[in-house]
Amino acid sequence: MTLGFTLAYLTLIVLIPLAGLVWRSASLGWGGMWHVATDPRTLNALKISFGTSFVAALVNVVFGVIVAWVLVRYRFPGRRIIDAVVDLPFALPTAVAGIALTALYSKNGWIGKWLDPLGIKVAFTPIGITIALIFIGLPFVVRTVQPVMEEIRKEVEEAAATLGATRFQTITRVLLPGLTPAILTGFALAFARAVGEYGSVIFIAGNLPYISEIAPLLIVIRLEEFDYTGATAIAAIMLIISFTMLFVINLIQAWSRRRYGYAT
Amino acid sequence: MKHSRFSLSLAAALFAATVSFQSLSAAHADTTLLNVSYDPTRELYKDYNAAFAAKWKADTGETLTIQTSHGGSGAQARSVIDGLDADVVTLALESDISAIVKATKKINPDWRTKYPHNSAPYTSTIVFLVRKGNPKGIKDWGDLVKDGVEVITPNPKTSGGARWNYLAAWAWAYGQYGGDEAKIKDYIGNLFQHVPVLDSGARGSTTTFAQRELGDVLLAWENEAYLASDEFGADKFDIIVPPQSILAEPPVAVVDGNVDAKGTRKVAEAYLQYLYSAEGQTIAAKHFYRPAEPKLVPADILKKLPELKLVTIDDPIFGGWAKAQPYHFGDGGTFDQIYKPKK
Questions:
Q1: Chain A partners within 8 Å of B213 (Cβ)
Q2: Which tens digit of pLDDT belongs to each residue from B172-205?
Q3: Which residues in chain B have Cβ-Cβ distances shorter than 8 Å to A217?
Q4: CB contact at 8 A, B188 and B338
Q5: Confidence band (pLDDT; 50, 70, 90) for B139?
Q6: Substitution target from B150, B158, B236 for chain A, most A beta carbons within 10 A
Q7: Residue A10 included in any domain
Q8: Residue A155 pLDDT > 60, yes or no?
Q9: What average pLDDT does this structure show over A203-229?
Q10: Domains in chain B, ordered, with CATH?
Q11: Which residues in chain A are closer than 8 Å to B93, comparing Cβ atoms?
């Protein structure tokens, strides 16, 4: 009963739209698909999309874990407010985030005007894209890691300390292994979200072909040409790459859970 | 107990939904007209809708609600293709309306002949908006590729306005290089090397230029240029009208399939026809669109729109939209070619 319901629901919400996508792009044939995939413009856009998303997800893992740790282990005034603030990127319309970030980082913005004399350009470059993606991805890491951290009791750290472990050893040998599956999930979510992001990026990217043009923009460009097949072909390629990467991350996660995980 | 409370609240929710649905359909009793337009006409149609609704009320006694939707011209055309219930479309490009004709047959193929001046009640052209005092001395299209000049224009792939910018530059280079296509492409390629940001729409570029203070010159619709200098202060910008530019004829059409289904044909046709009246033309000119019938407009409003040489899209340089669109902006068209990295 529940299995049937789950499958029906997944089919309706996820599989049918995706099948439509694959079906539409299939009319290109493998040759046409390969032609789209190896077009230098498409390749560059894919490289930029996946590259900036990867860097952004890495940054989010490092700082997201730190933020989660502080929220779990420290009690300080305003903690609940900070805790709520973490979710804001979820709720804020992405276009608003993009415009706000562009205003901050362009050369006359609050942050940009300090960076510009140093020759650092953020807005309208891939760095700007990465910053927008870091912004929207942060809550994914914090919210996946936080509940697992809450399960780790303080006694575990104390036990490690009494057995002679240094702070560094406690973190790398005791705490992180148990968190690895959750961190990987957070990474995968932040990464997947970033790859598909359009609204916030489009304002800060600059959108120059071969330099700061993201793959979702290329899809929109194909749509503007009323070239639905070309658009779905790029979408299908993104889908295949994303699926492969998420699948690999899931495998690593399963492996690390067997190797280190608290839950068995 | 818990169960019954749940069904009670469910019933309440259903009831509320029914009520709001009814009030929604009550609001539809008066005639509603949906005009699907493009980005820079926001202010124009705000004024025009009020004027037309007042006239319609005086003529027929009917209260008319006019809604206008704005967005990128191509995206707007796609929403109509995908089923948005537009009564009239007032878009940036002939090719966008042609796309609706081709994909849905909701607009009769002879729509261009339905209204005077090829169904273009107002026209516009592309001018330069520069920083006050024109510090880089930009007077003509050739000055755009001088060393150290940064040009702001949106992406021709996603913005109708940007296509006009592109074609205006092309037309100038065509005259300059006697039609030698390799040299024209060199110029255009060089021009886009001077573009640091390609925003997806015309409004985005205006913001980039006026608020982010990026670039030395903004290629813009004439009306958008005046609007920006009104909005951000006339002491910050100068408008430079180059000796030659392009004549953009944003067309209008009744969406026949939709008005016949909704029974709004009469009001939709009157709505577009009134654009050609003295009042409609004056409102257009006040918003810095060039009226198709300038003699209907008071001279003091017209004088803000100086004469210049204007090339049309039907000039042999371009050969009409049906040819220019794929040649320049299709996949692999001239715009894609100038961005191909040199091997």
A1: 106-108
A2: 999 999 999 999 999 999 999 999 989 888 878 8
A3: 158, 200
A4: yes
A5: very high
A6: B158
A7: no
A8: yes
A9: 86
A10: 7-120+249-276 (3.40.190.10), 124-248+307-339 (3.40.190.10)
A11: none
3-class DSSP state of B190: helix
pLDDT of A120 over the 70 cut:
yes
- What pLDDT is stored for residue B18 in this prediction? 46
What is the amino acid identity at position B158? T
B101–A contact, CB cutoff 8 A: no
Closest to B198 (Cβ–Cβ): which among A103, A208, A223?
A: A208
Whether residues B331 and A225 touch (CB distance < 8 A) is answered with yes
Q: Which of B158, B329, B331 sits opposite A230 (nearest CB)?
A: B331
Under an 8 A CB cutoff, do B198 and A207 touch?
yes
Q: Provide the token pair at B148.
A: 């150290």
Q: Is the dihedral of CA A35, A41, A47, A50 positive or negative?
A: negative
CA atoms within a 13 Å half-sphere pointing along the CA-CB vector of A17: 7
pLDDT exceeding 70 applies to what percent of chain A? 98
% of chain B surpassing 70 pLDDT: 91
* Cβ atoms within 10 Å, residue A86: 18
Measured between alpha carbons, how far is B311 from B199 in angstroms, rounded to an integer? 25
* Rounded distance between C-alpha atoms, residue B72 and residue B37, angstroms: 9
Q: For residue range B82-99, what is the model confidence (pLDDT) as tens digits? A: 889 999 999 988 888 999
pLDDT, greater one: A116 or B341: A116
Cβ within 8 Å of A, B 154-183: 155, 157-158
Residue A165 has pLDDT above 90, yes or no: no
**Residue A60: inside a domain:** yes
ipTM above 0.90, yes or no: no
Going from the C-alpha of A45 to that of each of A21, A229, A235, B155, the distances in angstroms are 20, 18, 12, 15
Model confidence band, residue B231 (pLDDT cutoffs 50, 70, 90)? confident
* Residue range B27-63, pLDDT digits in tens: 444 789 999 998 888 889 999 999 999 999 999 988 9
Kindly determine whether residue B212 and residue A103, on different chains, have CB atoms separated by under 8 Å.
yes
Give the Å distances, CA to CA, from B321 to B98, B146, B219, B313, B316. Answer: 10, 30, 21, 7, 11
A20 domain residue, yes or no: no
Compute the nearest-CA separation of A227 from chain B (Å).
9
Cα(A57)–Cα(A228) distance, integer angstroms: 30
The residue range of the domain holding A148 is 30-260
In a domain, A85, yes or no: yes
Asked if A41's CB is within 8 angstroms of B336's CB, the reply is yes
Q: Are strands B122-131 and B237-240 parallel, antiparallel or unpaired?
A: antiparallel
* Selection from B123, B121, B163 nearest residue B248 by Cα: B123
Residues of chain A with C-beta less than 8 angstroms from the C-beta of B104: none
Number of domains in chain A: 1
Of A107, A207, A227, the CB nearest to B331: A227
Q: How far is B276 from chain A (nearest CA, A)?
A: 30
pLDDT digits (tens, 9 = 90+) for A243-259: 998 899 889 888 887 87
CATH code, domain with A240:
1.10.3720.10
> pLDDT exceeding 90 applies to what percent of chain B?
62
